[in-house]
Amino acid sequence: MTALQKIGGLSVLAIGLMIFIVLMRMQTDITPVLNDTPQLREALREEFDGSFALTSTASGVVQEFDLRAAESSFELTKGITISSFAYNEQIPGPELRVALGATVKVNFRNDLPQPTTIHWHGVRVPNAMDGVPGVTQEPIEPGESFVYEFTPKDPGTFWFHPHVRGSEQVEKGLYGVLIVEDPEDPEYTQDVVWVVDDWRITPAGKLDERFNTGHDLSHDGRWGNVITVNGSVDEQLHVKPGERIRLRLVNVSNARVYVPDFSPLEAGLIAADGMPVSGVSSATGIELAPGNRIDVDITVPTGFRGKTITVTDTFTRATNRLGQIIVADEDAVSTPAFDYPLAKIMPLWSTAVEADVDAEYVLDARRGGEYGIEWTINGKTFPEAEAITLRSGEFEKIRFTNESARLHPMHLHGQFFKVLARNGKPVNEGFWRDTVLLKRDETVDVGLVPVDEGEWANHCHTLEHAEAGMMTTVIVE
Ligand SMILES: [Cu+2]
Predict the structure, then answer these.
(1) Distance of CA 94 from the midpoint of ligand 1 (Å)
(2) Beta partners for 239?
(3) What CA–CA distance (Å, rounded) separates 112 from 133?
(4) How far, in Å, is the centroid of ligand 1 from the Cα of 311?
(5) What is the gyration radius of the CA atoms in the chain, in angstroms?
(6) What is the average per-residue pLDDT within 151-170?
(7) If you ran DSSP here, which 8-state letter would residue 442 be given?
(8) Amino acid 28: pLDDT
(9) pLDDT digits over 317-332, tens only?
(10) CA of 380 to the centre of ligand 1 (A)
(11) Rounded to the nearest whole angstrom, what is the distance from the C-alpha of residue 346 to the centroid of ligand 1?
(12) What's the pLDDT band for 394 if we cut at 50, 70, 90?
């Protein structure tokens, strides 16, 4: 079957689906009795109050970093050295650790042969520091420099990557992690980051330089055939029995989704997308879509002396190896005892089902454009779509409707939201997100109270889909 035939099939499917949805809507128009009132909205906003730091608590300390993007070469594994891009010649780029309250100053220089920017994924930065070309800044041309300066408002696990030709620049190795440390963070015996990526390597042992192919665009983006953790196909974390570790997983892949399985270790989910959860649950089985982060709390049982645990990914039918946790054949150390600090306020928003949808984003594909296929939001590609406006400090309900058969991890910049319902069924995840995965034909309702003002990107984090138009903006005012 040719790509065009496949796309044709997709259109027929999409038209069928549209007719079905119209029929469904005609039916549902008669049934719902929503009680959207100013009182309901007020109550929903009150539930939220106190969830986020409204202003930064700048300490006056400045933590300064020099970051340079340039062409590089990278040894993925023995015999496979690829032409890459890198920050400071490292893959992953440098791990930036800053104290909550410190101002982060990044002196960035672009020595790539193409323009770039840096987006600080999940960090509530001043709008002008968000790194989105054509929205918050001009692209940084080769040979040019730019100073990013912001004071993070939230502690947690965040990351940074380019927002220009993302499907190529991120795939070639441009990404790094930003960790904001809270003085109230408990003392784990180790605090470790696992940056999870996949690479598409040709039989000749080179990085496949065909970006944005028709196949990748008409499917779930570019999935690689080699998975690395911290740039290694054989990442090993050495621990002692009794240790209590904080493991931060960041999915920087263009498109691949992971479902980490830590068993037989018990791994508690303590933070999602950088933000603390309202109650600890198992981290095994959580979907880590592109852009997502999870922080897990693992106590190594004393009975695991001398054991090796392989952490795997079970999202696809094949089980993929991520990294290994190797327990020393030594006496146990004493386990630090503390309760991980949970989110102080997390709205339940159980009455949000009664609120009308304030903005709906319909996700779909069509033929056309530079790549022969375009991914659309409400029938438009970036930048033709008009921005929607969200009211700062008010409860807002957004609906994402996936009318395609493909995966779309939708990422809203500058704001955190909570999933309210999937396919109309209320859910309570107990954590905030900045990126939510939509599966085929799925509808996801999210609630938020926007607090950071400006024009923010809202796009699919499958980087090939974003490249083919799947991006729009919201204005918070
Ligand atoms: Cu997508």
Answers:
(1) 28
(2) 327
(3) 16
(4) 27
(5) 22
(6) 97
(7) -
(8) 47
(9) 999 999 999 999 999 9
(10) 14
(11) 28
(12) very high
pTM comes to 0.92
Q: What is the pLDDT of residue 6?
A: 55
Q: How many angstroms separate the alpha carbon of residue 325 from the centre of ligand 1?
A: 33
Please say if the pLDDT value at position 392 is more than 60.
Answer: yes
**Ligand 1 centroid vs 363 CA: distance in angstroms?**
8
- Say how far apart CA 210 and CA 171 lie, in whole Å: 11
Distance 408 CA to ligand 1 centre (A): 4
pLDDT digits (tens, 9 = 90+) for 142-157: 999 999 999 999 999 9
CA of 468 to the centre of ligand 1 (A): 9
Distances (CA, A) of 462 to 146, 233, 364: 26, 22, 13
- Ligand 1 center to 42 CA (angstroms): 34
DSSP label of 135: T
CA pair distance 107, 102, nearest whole angstrom? 16
In terms of Cβ atoms closer than 10 Å to its own Cβ (0-12, 13-18, 19+), residue 229 is: buried
Distance CA(275)–CA(283), nearest Å, equals 14
Q: Which of 345, 432, 392 lies closest to 156 in space, CA to CA?
A: 432
Q: How far is CA 69 from CA 162, 194, 353, 447, in A?
A: 10, 21, 46, 37
Three-state secondary structure string covering 151-182 = CCCCCEEEEEECCCCHHHHCCCCCCEEEEEEC
Q: What residue type is assigned to position 5 of the chain?
A: Q
Q: Tens digits of per-residue pLDDT, 44-83?
A: 999 999 999 887 779 999 999 999 999 999 999 988 999 9
Expressed in angstroms and rounded, the spacing between residue 402 Cα and the centre of ligand 1 is 9
Q: What angle do CA 350, 52, 182 make, to 5 degrees?
A: 125
Cα 289 to ligand 1 centroid, rounded to whole Å: 11
